[in-house]
Automatic annotation (TrEMBL):
Gene3D superfamilies recorded: 3.50.50.100
Pfam families per record: Pyr_redox_2 (PF07992)
CC cofactor: FAD
PANTHER family: 64 KDA MITOCHONDRIAL NADH DEHYDROGENASE (EUROFUNG) (PTHR42913:SF3), APOPTOSIS-INDUCING FACTOR 1 (PTHR42913)
Record keywords, A-Z: FAD, Flavoprotein, Oxidoreductase
Family, similarity comment: Belongs to the NADH dehydrogenase family.
Protein name in UniProt: FAD-dependent oxidoreductase
Amino acid sequence: MRVIILGGGYAGLVCALRLARRARGQVAITLVSENEHFVERIRLHEWAAGHKPSQKALKEMVAGTDITLKRGRVTRIDPQGEVTVGQERLSFDRLVVALGSQADTRSVPGIREHAFTLEPASAAELASKLPALAARGGRVVVIGGGLTGIEGATEFAESYPGLKVSLLTSSALGKDFQDVGRKHLLSCLDRLGVTQEQGRVKRIHADAIELADRTVPFDVCLWTGGFTVPALLRESGLPVNERGQVLVDPFLHVLGHKNIMAVGDAATLVDPPSAMDMGCKTALPMGAHAAENLARILRGEPEKRLEYVHSVFCTSLGRNDGIIQFYRADGSRVPWVVTGRPAAWIKEFICRSTLLAPQLERVGLGGTLWRKRSQTSSLEPSGQEILAV
């Protein structure tokens, strides 16, 4: 079986590595990635603040496996059995789409021209500008009150006390936390000197953000107001939602295309309707489950439905603080949170585990664990599973 996996991020890499050990000798796996290195997207706000993570080459991460790594940009997907990478055409029997997400730079005029994003190249450029900006007391405005915006604003304020950091949101902060967590968040922002602005952005200009009733000036603007999926998926005729995510069934097959699976940020479950957020916490289980189902197909066994229950919401507030909000098996929030330095330790452990998971897969150990509906935690069968993410 010729299997092509598009995307070398969390979902695609784990899918390739697990399939390689589950179906050794029965499958030819090609992993396609535009990037030479594995991108730790959950650390890009740290990179932008000057804490560049160590980079691992994808070639090294798949070394010793039967995976063929092909560098290049996917320019075309023919659902009938062919993809184009650059100018090269590759045929497949099964395709796994794991192209991930990217900052949505189309939703507001001026983002592309005047704002930074937490994409690798933009984060690196922002990191080079912040030291001089902090030295002269410049102002950074972070747009977006979700996890990415909160983490970016607190990271900048802690790393560069000379900066004037503002967090601009369209609604109240901390809606994902219980009251105690929200109070801790607001206290942390106050301690770090991060000011809050509220309003809906109409346009971003060269040095100011235009709201409905006023403008907010800045020296540097960081846009974290949402993510989208590569337009290639819609253009290829695959069924997608309004965000461009590919619609998949409970077995992760693309609707109407049994030879194609989609996982990670690029996919969304439609039966039942997905409650899975974008991020590595869902990408890793989806990638591992897709690999298991492909191995079952090869063995002539029935596939299994993906079961996933949200278990934790982790937010870093700089290097020494954070909020960990846990969830019950029914999806409701527990009435307490972990904060402060212990929360920072937990978040760091989780970040490290997402990088360790594929390394364990490469040497034959399952590194991906997630909670299922039927039990508090569950592991895919066969092999020694030892790491929770």
